[in-house]
Amino acid sequence: MYLSTVSRPEVTEVPDRLKRRVSGNVIALGAVSLITDISSEMVTAVLPLYLVVGLGMSPLAYGAIDGLYTGATALLRLVGGYVADRTRRHKTVAGVGYGLAALAKLGLIAAGNSLAGIGAAITADRAGKGLRTGPRDALITLSTPEDQLGRAFGVHRSMDALGAFIGPLAAVGVLMWAGSQEFDAVFFISFLVAAFGVVVLVLFVRDHREKAKPKAVDIRAALGLVRHKGVGALLLAASLLGLVVVGDGFVYLLLQKRGDLSMGWFPLLAVGTSLVYLLLATPLGVLADKIGRAKVMLGGYSALALVYLALIGPIDGIALIVLVLVLYGFFYAATDGVLMALAGRVLPKELRATGMALVQTGQALAYLGSSVLFGLSWQLWGPTAACAAAGGAVAVTIVVTALIFARVNRSVQP
Questions:
Q1: Domain count, the chain
Q2: Where's the Major facilitator superfamily (MFS) profile domain (predicted)?
């Protein structure tokens, strides 16, 4: 089951011996993501511990902060995508986003124990991510032949996952060096790493320049994008799938408790997920190009349902930890880059960054709602009931989304 093309990128023909290679621009973007993810995951790995254990947040309060971390800057995702399409300066817009996210790490230090300050710093960090993600992913599609998009996004996400693998290890190293409660040291080192990522972007990433003058992009065309064949249904499917993702922090907090893992090892849970993601992102991207991207993506969400059920199942200890981290890593590898590769075949070229930002915005807003609802369910009925409900919701959503993708496939057939 996959979506047929609506608008194909205009790419230069390459010899057969180069057809399976990923462009240098994709590798450069992957290097920027690798470095930036080291910085981001240093913070992400300690943030649940810092907020829930260090500051004593309730599950509901943490759910609100966690949802804010991904969902509250949805408008800026659209702004970033539209400005990149309008100006054709994808690299510049992405660079602003990377720079803002780097500065946000200093904001966490300045915030201290203030929840309002922490929320503002997190919002700034996610604003940076919102600005950069659409233009960056559009650059990947504009630098890659259409039939190789799964491979390109798989390689990029593998490099991104390598950063996510290193980040928590770096956070543990900093805490061992500076002291187990010295979170500010983690935040400062994270800022330095993120700043280096911006330097790499400026020096090595090339913007996509067309020889012919591009078609003008106006606000009316951007607003009408959802009426483009297949785009509205893709947005609906992505939003429904985003609504059943409760967030890493909740999964790791439950896994730490069920796995009887000491707090000092907590950041390494993210390392396990990232390792599986790193190993599987490229193979699953290649598989998606061959058998259909929607199939691989829905397989990833099936693994997510098993994660939620495993957290309330009979398995405990190290066996549970290994099972959940493998399934969780598979989920990310099968969904993150694959969704953008799928979108790249549906979105019109002149609105590629805007369209990708639109899809990501739908997921981000859905994620904001899911985090708050899961936190509320946990607080009212306990984690067992919350996980059971989440697992059931994933199963229902997979069926509904499969039907949506089938309908889109029929509607976009030439």
A1: 1
A2: 25-409
